[in-house]
Amino acid sequence: xxxxxxxxxxxxxxxxxxxxxxxxxxxxxxxxxxxxxxxxxxxxxxxxxxxxxxxxxxxxxxxxxxxxxxxxxxxxxxxxxxxxxxxxxxxxxxxxxxxxxxxxxxxxxxxxxxxxxxxxxxxxxxxxxxxxxxxxxxxxxxxxxxxxxxxxxxxxxxxxxxxxxxxxxxxxxxxxxxxxxxxxxxxxxxxxxxxxxxxxxxxxxxxxxxxxxxxxxxxxxxxxxxxxxxxxxxxxxxxxxxxxxxxxxxxxxxxxxxxxxxxxxxxxxxxxxxxxxxxxxxxxxxxxxxxxxxxxxxxxxxxxxxxxxxxxxxxxxxxxxxxxxxxxxxxxxxxxxxxxxxxxxxxxxxxxxxxxxxxxxxxxxxxxxxxxxxxxxxxxxxxxxxxxxxxxxxxxxxxxxxxxxxxxxxxxxxxxxxxxxxxxxxxxxxxxxxxxxxxxxxxxxxxxxxxxxxxxxxxxxxxxxxxxxxxxxxxxxxxxxxxxxxxxxxxxxxxxxxxxxxxxxxxxxxxxxxxxxxxxxxxxxxxxxxxxxxxxxxxxxxxxxxxxxxxxxxxxxxxxxxxxxxxxxxxxxxxxxxxxxxxxxxxxxxxxxxxxxxxxxxxxxxxxxxxxxxxxxxxxxxxxxxxxxxxxxxxxxxxxxxxxxxxxxxxxxxxxxxxxxxxxxxxxxxxxxxxxxxxxxxxxxxxxxxxxxxxxxxxxxxxxxxxxxxxxxxxxxxxxxxxxxxxxxxxxxxxxxxxxxxxxxxxxxxxxxxxxxxxxxxxx
Length: 764
Ligand code: GLN
Ligand code: ZN
Description:
With 764 residues, the protein is an alpha/beta fold. The protein has 26 helices and 22 strands. Strands 1-12-11-10-9-8-6-2 form an eight-stranded parallel sheet. It has a five-stranded parallel sheet with strand order 17-19-20-21-22. It has a three-stranded mixed sheet with strand order 13-16-18. β11 (283-289), α11 (299-313) and β12 (318-322) form a beta-alpha-beta unit. The longest helix has 28 residues, at 736-763. It starts with a strand and ends with a helix. The relative contact order is 0.08. The mean pLDDT is 96. Zinc ion is lined by residues 434, 604, 644, 646, 729-730.
């Protein structure tokens, strides 16, 4: 019999219980035992749901109160010295301090989990790191499920990926150097799990889907040789996901493990090779159901590779599951009020995907019985292909008719710069902000009242106009040169546009975990994208009417809108992105027509879209930058295009940043002490740059001197006439009583340096 497996289930709960109870605990509203009880409920609910769905190998240990990489670090006793406790144990206080920071102790760094929107905490390892089994969470949760009568498959983040994802406290060693010291801890856990009754263990080694060195290959060999002997009788299922094994295939297939999992949504082409190399005993687990997207599977098509594998290996040696953990998709489609209507009927969330997995398993056992289920799936897909709005001929024609000229500004930057200076008349080192101002209680309350229907639309509009008036008044008083309207009307920079563009839908409950208690609700792109009406023009024109200073029009760029949505799987991403670019282009042109002289198109997610496979990156950067240019290049030379990016490493994408050809790019730089700017200097970045001088993540109000010092550092790297002055990012998470003094000082710092620069140049 083919077994149905799952690699992981969302931890957030169907109603975002994780968030609710974590935040209640952090704010002292509930105590630790109550919080832990609630978490147990989430786990229990998930296990029972998977049992009822018919999953044979249900995961345990996939739950985490905050993050599974942090859990692994804590399990192995990798507690950085700044969190050390006298007793050496890790209680909840230490755990959450590592996750969120504590008094005077900064949290672990957080970074993106491969190419997903999930963020993990980066373990910090010391050169003399001692590992010791510090918690037995995997065993506890295995036993917890056992009490419910469920024999789970515990999930561990494998030792090699754990080390590869960690960071060395200094550059004198590589985390992989610590492998020998780490393995005994894993050995102990495996032994305890076996003694508790576990039969299979899922060892997640997602790093197998990224390029690895020979040293890493050796580490894999060494690790699994050791672990295969650590707990005889226990079967290890080595799981890779998010991409093909590529150059790691031979390494992976030769490891002494009982099974291997392949992401069939991204590596299906490797199946024949894997079958031919897998040897006489290993089990092959096929990740056929997409764990990264919300579309129903074409089950009939998925049966083909499954049958191929079964024919080659026999039913005993084949498992079927999702491509990766299901934590990257929302929990349950039936939480959507419109679940019975199109386009929701074309979708499958985590819960529905379990049924798809089981349907595939059953299809092998009794093909006849499967016909009905398959027919339903095919009917949904056929309906999707036929439905209005999915293919819009006008959009297709327009996208096909895009010319290279549409992706070029009329003149080169040096010419535009002169025209813009005439148009804008800005001082040296102009000051501005990134777009959003504090989202206060008042703003949230108004939005809630409007959504609940207790505030009429006109009042809601009037409310935002008042917010804009206040914002303009404050900015003028501070003396900023280029103003923003403050974005009080936006909950989220992508959802705001998703709500207004055709081809998008927003869900009521489609939450996925971003990190810890934070969830995001990505819009769904189901059809061709078009802009039915202007989206921001009224607001921007209104804001501009209140001031003679330039008011920036604020848009989110096509790449970011796509990157932070669930994207249709029946059209290449580059095509989807091009459609969004054309819609944004219309908005850009309308803003210009309405008298907006500076338009900022944010692309904070440009870097994130970079494919994991190195050989695909160039192509991605080509079409991504083209889409940005398509969105902005229709404007006159005298209209200034800004873009904004934050919290990413620019070093390897500088040519792409330059290819955007934005007149001004603002970046985060204060937080990293201007380190990021080095990339701009080395590259001799030709256009204007605004390196952030105010770390917006901190409640601290920086001094004039501190900001002036950062500016001077920047002025050493970037020629003075290319420099702008701004914070690191938007200010929506800050309070007005922090923002006003901080921006006042920022403007003071800029004025001070302008004067100094004047004095210096008079001396010459
Ligand atoms: N304009 C957005 C803001 O100010 C940019 C946010 C971002 O970079 N993520 O909030
Ligand atoms: Zn930002």
